[in-house]
Specification:
By secondary structure, this protein is an alpha+beta fold. Helix content is 40%, strand content 21%. It holds the Pfam family DUF4504.
Length: 317
């Protein structure tokens, strides 16, 4: 696994400069006038995907569905026409959530999860107080997540997108019997992978799915029948907010002074993360993500984590 990741992850600064020029050009061509904060988030997310720092990002900015989906598809279409680095990127939809996915990197991530190469720690929100459980412990809700992971593996391949679960979405592909991989034939629809029905069959809740999908080391765990309990149990607890911050090369920052930007963030109940940065699972997570950063250290010049305590507040799950 590690050798495969090394083979694909290293990107030169000059290549990323091309990515950023393509990014700006595509936004201009489709006349997508993003707020500055949303544009910065999209840019850092695209960079994270193209350098394989992250296999999946959630796009919860830049508009609402279905317009957001249409804009993302048009954006990717223009990017792929101008720069081959964008070829593995796709739009993925699950219910009312929308994501950008690096197909090959995500396939590798799913495999490592199913093979338990990347072990998760769950926080059981069905009971008060919440408690940590390991992936090895028996849990029917964790089993639902595994079922969802197997669904992703049936769709994503290191070589592309498999068509067997997508044929009902893309009738034009059915005529092509020469390949088991989906090859785009229409610009907008080809970039959209709608897995809403497939994931619904697994019965996993979206917050549990997102915790794993977005690469968090801690995943909130609760079943469909316990959503109200989970909201209450999290809303009444103080939290630690863990932020992973990166600085990028001045050449990839349009020559401006390097500034810390958020790569990702996640929360953990305060009582379950009293040691903050010194928690063993934090150290394991940082070791893993810093290894990715060091492979691209000409682009991502530094990576660090910050922890801030938050008082109890209303939580939407």
């Amino acid at each position: 696994m590690e050798s495969t990741i090394f083979k694909y992850s290293i990107m030169e600064v000059a290549e990323l400069e091309t990515v950023l020029k393509t990014f700006e050009s595509a936004l201009s061509q489709i006349k997508w006038r993003l707020k500055l904060s949303s544009k910065r988030r999209l840019e850092i997310d695209i960079m994270a995907l193209c350098t394989e720092m992250r296999p999946v990002v959630m796009v919860d900015y830049g508009g609402k569905m279905p317009e957001l989906q249409e804009r993302l598809c048009a954006f990717l279409e223009h990017c792929k026409e101008d720069c081959s680095i964008f070829k593995p990127l796709h739009v993925m939809v699950i219910e009312d959530m929308i994501y950008l996915v690096h197909a090959r990197a995500f396939a590798e991530f799913v495999k490592s999860s199913l093979n338990l190469e990347t072990r998760l720690i769950f926080i059981d929100l069905e009971h008060d107080p919440p408690k940590m459980i390991t992936q090895a412990e028996e849990s029917c809700v964790a089993a639902e997540l595994v079922l969802a992971q197997k669904t992703f593996l049936s769709v994503f391949s290191e070589n592309g997108i498999k068509i067997d679960h997508l044929e009902h979405q893309k009738p034009e592909v059915r005529a092509n019997n020469d390949s088991s991989l989906y090859k785009p034939t229409s610009s907008l629809s080809s970039d959209v992978i709608d897995l809403s029905e497939c994931i619904k069959d697994s019965h996993v809740t979206i917050p549990t799915l997102n915790g794993w999908l977005l690469g968090y080391p801690i995943v909130y765990l609760f079943g469909m029948a316990h959503i109200e309990n989970a909201i209450y149990n999290l809303s009444t607890k103080s939290l630690n907010l863990f932020q992973v911050l990166v600085c990028r090369s001045a050449r990839c920052n349009r020559g401006s002074q390097a500034q810390k930007q958020e790569l990702m963030s996640f929360s953990v109940p305060y009582d379950l993360s009293l040691e903050g940065m010194n928690e063993p699972w934090v150290e394991t997570f940082l070791t893993r993500i810093k290894a990715k950063q060091e492979r691209c250290n000409q682009i991502w010049t530094s990576l660090q984590m910050e922890v801030n305590a938050c008082y109890p507040q209303a939580i939407a799950l």
